[in-house]
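User: Assemble these into one structure.

Assistant: Restating your components, then the assembled model:
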Amino acid sequence: MTIYLPIAEISVNAFVILGMGAAVGFLSGIFGVGGGFLITPLLIFYNIPPAVAVATGANQVVASSFSGALSHFRRGTLDVKLGLVLLVGGIAGAAVGVFVFSFLRTIGQLDLIISLMYVTFLSTIGGLMLWESIRSLLRARANQPVSLRRPGQHNWVHRLPLKMRFKKSKIYLSAIPVVALGFAIGILTSVMGVGGGFIMVPAMIYLLRIPTNVVIGTSLFQIIFVTAFTTVIQATTNQSVDVFLAGLLMIAGVIGAQYGVRAGRKLRGEQLRAGLALLVLGTGVRLGYDLVATPQELYSVAATMVGFQ
Amino acid sequence: MTIVAAAVIAAGLLASPASAQSRTPRLDIGISTNVIPITSDFAGEDLTVFGAIDGADPELLRADFYDVVVTLEGPSLESVVRKKARVFGIWINRSSMRFEPAPVSYSLSSTLPVELIADSIELSDLGIGVQNIRLTPTGAIGDGSATPEFRNALLRLRTADGLYQRDPIGVEYVSSSLFRATLRLPANVPVGEHKLRAFLFQGGKFVMERELPLSVVKTGVEQFIFEYAHQHSLIYGLFAVLLAMITGWLGSVLFRKD
């Protein structure tokens, strides 16, 4: 079934888009991430103009993160206070990111920067997570206690001032690293069209030492707002949000995510983290290969139309 | 437009005596519509153009002495061609060339391959054929030695995308003086004002040209969404977010029981 996308200005096969949405939704349900880091490259690979892919990806993540955050809120695994502090940084970062995005578009290196950022972040985070999860899997096999929270063992983050008490997370933590993390991820959201869950989740677990059970819900909570903000900003500055495309992705994604959540419950924590690590690392390596390998086509052509870069 | 088509056919069949005196053949073309709508299920389309050679010499007609070329030129836009090069091991867009506005789509249909219809100078003068699409570089182009490289890349990429195409046997004679040309509009046909042109050749010599406008437009919901996104971008953005939230909420509610 062919469908014409009014903003992307191309005809696509609706089933391909639905399939992408469902597959990414399934994975995001399992691992508790928005899935933007998967959907945007997939859309670009399917010839959707990068500008539209990034903006529409952000819109789609609003749906999946809202759906996920609601489930977590009902189960009591969402720290609203922590989420709001993250959000302060997130909104500021997203606003800065949109200007960075427009600037990169004018100098014609948007694709490169997006690819480089993807490769750098995905490979680094994926690699670190994989290393950690393999170690804990090995430890679990050797019947040693598996614990991410080592009481009494604090890193530099915990010596910063402006401490706040987060009841639901049962932690006492400085607001500075929380806002900074939100800010960094806000920039990524607007430039890369991702929610940043794949960075947020590990950073909260390993850097801020927030208990894993509230991390996913809280991360999703703040991602809703940052991606919603990004969607509106992208719509007003670049007119590159395609609601047809986003709608198809959302419907399939939300359904896929529900099945993903069920599949995820059957897995253990370390297995989940190892799986997410492999997924993140795999995507990073794949994109990295594309940057280094000699391309089949050295040239690209762009006509100066609105919504195209 | 149906009126035009009817008039053309009538003229063609009657071969009026007035034009027969001068023995200069005339060309007329007609299309059933001058608006091609892009609907949500648009996957490319064939455009059929009817035409007649009026006042032609019947002997020459019988001997296939007349050739017809029909082209459809898309809207003209400025284009940038970028070339990747390896920098520190990674491939990045290194050099680029900007071209003055030129048709972003071009479809050609003819009775014979155009090279066999007329010589290259004539084709170039008339701007017939993909090779003769005028691509003039603008901005800093250095000594111009790189121009053919970028120009050929642009033609090759657009041809690969189906935007530039030709059908060397796409014009068929229905009767001795009536012809039918089929032009392919690709799925990615650009929206905007297109120009339909028909050329008549007599024994390799250009006789006359006809031109008709053709608009390719988005329709219905697609058009509405596009306009809304540009004119009321804030409300559009908020709507996109609302849509996402409703979808997300529905998803979590519908599946809650399990």
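The mean pLDDT of chain B is 83.
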